[in-house]
Amino acid sequence: MVQPDPWVVHKFGGSSVADADCFRKVAAILEAAPAGRLAVVLSACRGVTDALLRLVALAERHDERVSAEIVQLRERHVAIANELLTPAAAQRYRATFESDCRDLQEVLRSLQLPRSLEHPRGSSRDVSDLVSGYGEVWSTRLFQRFFAERARRPGPVAWLDARRVVVVEWGPLGPGVQWPESRANLEAQVPAVFHGTLVITGFVAVDRRGVPTTLGRNGSDFSASIFGALLGATEILIWTDVDGVLSADPRRVPDATVIDSLSYNEAMELAYFGAKVIHPQTIAPAVKDCIPIWIRNTFAPEKTGTLICAEPASALPVKGITSIERVALVNLEGTGMIGVPGTAHRLFGALREEAISVILISQGSSEHSICCAIPQEQAERAAAVVTRAFERELEEGQIQSVDVDADHAILAVVGDGMAGTPGIAAKVFTALGDSGVNVRAIAQGASERNISAVVEGRSAMRALRAVHAGLYLSPHTLSIGVIGPGTVGRVLLDQLAAQHEHLRRQFRLDLRVRGIIGGSRMLLAYYQRLQSARRSGASHYLYEATVGAGLPIVQTLRDLVQTGDDIIGIEGIFSGTLAYLFNLYDGRRGFAEIVRDARARGFTEPDPRDDLSGQDVARKLIILGREMGLPLELSDVKIESLVPAELAGDTIEQFMAHLPHHDAAMAQRLAAAHARGKVLRYTGKLTAAGEATVGLQELDARHPFANIALTDNVVRFATRRYRDNPLIVQGPGAGPEVTAGGVFADLLRLAAYLGARL
User: Fold this and answer.
1) What is the rounded distance in angstroms from the CA atom of residue 260 to the CA atom of residue 397?
2) Residues 664, 670, 676, 682: what is their CA dihedral angle, to the nearest 10 degrees?
3) Do the strands 439-444 and 450-456 form a parallel or antiparallel pair, or are they unpaired?
4) Which residues pair with 718 in a beta bridge?
5) Which long-range contacts does 426-429 make (Cβ < 8 Å, 24+ apart)?
6) Rounded alpha-carbon distances, angstroms, from residue 17 to 10, 71, 89, 131
């Protein structure tokens, strides 16, 4: 006997059958599926279930808008049928729909009977379940006719009302499937030799009385899993409007990524803690029979999606981060609880009696307090019932307090791979701490599959994003504000833009420029106060480019000091501008002409006096001195300015025009140096005693500072370790490219401090 092909179950949600175009997409997906038997479970068209429940509410209030709302539902479905079906098929569908509408009107009228009369259809809950299930009946009937007319897949296309098969009993844990009755019903409805496509209503079922009921909101996913188990399907595909199960809610974490595969346990954890793509009960029948579940996108069927199975191949230790909002914390605290058995039983028993759901439990080993999280809307009742349950202990002082704090959220980190992997919890709580998120309670099961933390509700989004980036599920985002988009600032912005995609793709580092500010005023903070604030706030203050542009001068000095070396002295050429001027100045051209040329090339500040005054070099000496631990101020530095005193008050244009009048004095000084076999270089010197001098110096022609490239900076560190052979750092010290590169390097160094993998 030839074995029939295996079943594959496809489920399409409301967004996947929202209109005629969506119906066509669903049909195309099914027609492209591999050969075999298909079970197609459909939800109601998007928004229809809500509209039906609204009808129930209107009928209970005797609202006259009931008829108008039914007309709208009829018009919507008839319009889709007219677009998809042949005229004859559309007419038959309309006739059936009209009959349903008459039945619906009768059912809704039963809700308007006096309370003293028994509803002919049973309780209002029964009526609500019956009415809300019409949407799936309408969508599946329409699709069955449409798919059959297309006839692009072999075999018949049959319609199956799930209420003729699935029997459930509602209990404390929701609807429980009665498997023996359901299997018997399926065998009666679907012949074993059926080979084609079965279009099945999602969401609906019957109870043991035969009364129509539902599987709860989002229950069509559960329907797919139930029929997967009943039919012995080889896999279940749940089609929705996203590319798969995401590592976080993309509305809150824009960089959330699709998870390639999940275990059943991981999927249930994510679903419990708020993941919207899957319904928690969807998993149960599939787990029992080890049926793989795929989450796919109807509107991007080329995407692989997410596989949920018993043994996923993914190597990611953490699969997702999700949250439950609007949570309240109940905290029971008292010295009388220590070592007393039954306290937790009384607490949770009291909450159970009031049907208050406990989401999370946290208790310290001292037994001094018990904390649990509950839905916020149950907070007032919880406070009252717990206070009542421990009334005597509160009066006698054995229990000090019963506190209920609202406006919290639970952050849950989920992943089977966390078990036995050291450091995951450290990354979670480091990310929260670095983002300034306070943790109120913590819980982790022995399976290590879930780490949960309760945080303030207002911090929930910040917490989600911080942990998501901290666990490398999304690029580590570094927000940047550029103050002063001048010559260097513009080049820095260009460098950031050029490297953005490379850093994001290769190192998962997302550098984002959040603001660009220009202005003529600047506030200089006191150095010691700034450093103190940095240390107390666990912040980072980086300024490598302030000395030597992109050269590693500040970092080199910091490494020397922090590793215990003693700095004897520092000297060097700290101004690329002045290095350029005196490398070129050989007496054949006037000094003013060289200054004008350097300004035109961008090697000087817009006002060259900022360079010639020596103030820039002095500031750099102060920066290095403070790194050495010296309390230097600008007034402590002896500065030789190259700006003639009479030109100090001129405008820039006047200064440039009058500077040639002073060429003779500079030429005379150069000639005197040459006569002694020396050259002129503008240097800065700093000793361990705090003596700081800046000025024009005559150096031997063989001196290291006398033989450098045009705009080089060169710094010589004399230390206890490098006394006889000083450590020298040399390279380009001016120009927008190298200076911007120094700032860029600090940004990457900061990203590494904050946890980016570079």
Assistant:
1) 54
2) 140
3) antiparallel
4) 569
5) 427/467, 427/470, 427/471, 427/755, 428/453, 428/467, 428/470, 428/471, 429/453
6) 13, 20, 19, 19
Q: Could you count the other beta carbons within 10 Å of the beta carbon of residue 627?
A: 21
Catalytic residue check, 620: yes
Q: Is 624 exposed, middle or buried (0-12, 13-18, 19+ CB in 10 A)?
A: buried
> DSSP code of 138?
H
d(CA 526, CA 501): 37
Is pLDDT above 50 for 118?
no
Q: Which one from 319, 620, 638, 678 is the annotated catalytic residue?
A: 620
Contacts of 283 (CB under 8 A, 6+ apart): 225, 264, 267, 268, 271, 293, 308
Asked if the model's pLDDT at residue 752 lies above 80, the reply is no
pLDDT for 539 equals: 64
Q: Reduce the secondary structure of 609-672 to three states and give it as a string.
A: HHHHCCHHHHHHHHHHHHHCCCCCCHHHEEECCCCCHHHCCCCHHHHHHHHHHHHHHHHHHHHH
Percent of the chain with pLDDT over 90: 59
b/e string for 723-736 if b means 16 or more Cβ within 10 A?
Answer: eeebeebbbbbbbb
Mean pLDDT of the chain: 88
What are the tens digits of pLDDT across the range 488-516? 888 888 888 888 888 887 777 788 787 77
Distance CA 743, CA 750 (A): 11
Determine contact, residues 524/516, Cβ cutoff 8 Å: no
pTM for this model (two decimals): 0.68
Dihedral, CA of residue 634, residue 636, residue 638 and residue 643, to nearest 10: 20
Task: Tell me which amino acid residue 513 is.
Answer: V
pLDDT tens digits along 168-220: 999 887 899 999 999 999 999 999 999 999 999 999 999 999 999 999 877 89
User: What mean pLDDT do residues 598-612 have?
Assistant: 89
Give the three-state DSSP class for 678: strand
Q: What is the DSSP letter of 258?
A: B
Residue 684: which pLDDT band, with cuts at 50, 70 and 90?
very high
